[in-house]
């Protein structure tokens, strides 16, 4: 009596759906600057969180689908970093040696640190103006520097104020230089040579007193 039952169970098992294929893996590497990994970046598919990057800026996601399809995931960067404006397209594929396809993602900083270095030949003790406000002053050698935290793409100018030099006239007078902030921290250099025009000495000539006529 057991043989028919076993045969029935075997036939039912042969008609059952095959087990689902394993998901496709993909490795995502997130950096803010080249060589600077981002920890805590969240990878989402729709509203579902798939993974979070570790201290090395890497995370592995597993996605089910048909090989060759492209699935989109969203990268949400930590605060003070800028998330990618578009989703990341992941092509479902299996590489030889059980390796997962790798994808590079950038989460650039929302603010950049720039240092403005001034070298003013013949320009000691000059106020350095940013947004019409003195932020530094050149030393006896004409050197000065100051730092700013500004958004990438910002444009500004720096001015060397020559109006305080009194009797010495510097040329050019109060020169300015424009700068633009890129996508990386940077050192911006303002080099300026001044010609010093000193006032001509005024010679005193005593009045000529006519000699008395005898």
Using brief descriptors, characterize the structure shown.
rod-shaped; 2 domains; Immunoglobulin-like; four-stranded mixed β-sheet; four-stranded antiparallel β-sheet; 17 strands; mainly beta
Short structural description:
By secondary structure, the protein is mainly β. It is 7% helix and 44% strand. The protein is built from one helix and 17 strands.
Beta-strand fraction estimate: 35-45%
Low-confidence stretches: none
- Can you tell me the CATH class of the largest domain? Mainly Beta
Provide the residue-averaged pLDDT: 88
Taken from the alpha-carbon principal axes, the silhouette is: rod-shaped
Find the count of extended strands (DSSP E, 2+ residues): 17
SSE string, helices as H and strands as E: HEEEEEEEEEEEEEEEEE
- Second CATH tier, the architecture of the largest domain: Sandwich
Count of helical stretches: 1
- Rg: 36 Å
Share in helix: under 10%
| N- and C-termini, Cα separation | 170 Å
Q: Main sheet, how many strands, which sense, barrel?
A: 4 strands, mixed
Helix/strand/pairing class, anyone? mainly beta
Q: Determine the CATH superfamily of the largest domain.
A: Outer membrane usher protein FimD, plug domain
CATH topology name of the largest domain: Immunoglobulin-like
Provide the number of structural domains.
Answer: 2
């Amino acid at each position: 009596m057991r043989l028919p039952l076993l045969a029935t169970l075997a036939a039912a098992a042969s008609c059952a759906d095959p087990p689902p294929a394993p998901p496709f893996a993909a490795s995502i590497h997130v950096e803010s600057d080249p060589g600077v990994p981002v920890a805590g970046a969240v990878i989402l598919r729709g509203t579902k969180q798939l993974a979070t990057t570790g201290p090395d800026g890497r995370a592995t996601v597993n996605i089910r689908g048909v090989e060759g399809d492209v699935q989109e995931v969203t990268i949400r960067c930590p605060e003070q970093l800028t998330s990618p404006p578009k989703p990341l397209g992941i092509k479902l594929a299996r590489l030889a040696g059980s390796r997962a396809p790798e994808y590079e993602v950038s989460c650039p900083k929302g603010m950049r640190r720039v240092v403005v270095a001034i070298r003013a030949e013949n320009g000691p003790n000059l106020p350095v103006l940013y947004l019409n406000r003195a932020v530094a002053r050149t030393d006896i050698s004409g050197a000065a520097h100051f730092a700013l935290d500004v958004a990438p793409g910002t444009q500004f100018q720096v001015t060397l104020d020559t109006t305080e030099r009194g009797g010495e006239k510097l040329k050019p007078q109060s020169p300015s230089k424009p700068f633009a902030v890129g996508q990386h921290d940077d050192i911006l250099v303002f080099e300026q040579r001044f010609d010093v025009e000193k006032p001509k000495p005024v010679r005193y000539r005593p009045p000529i007193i006519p000699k008395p006529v005898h």
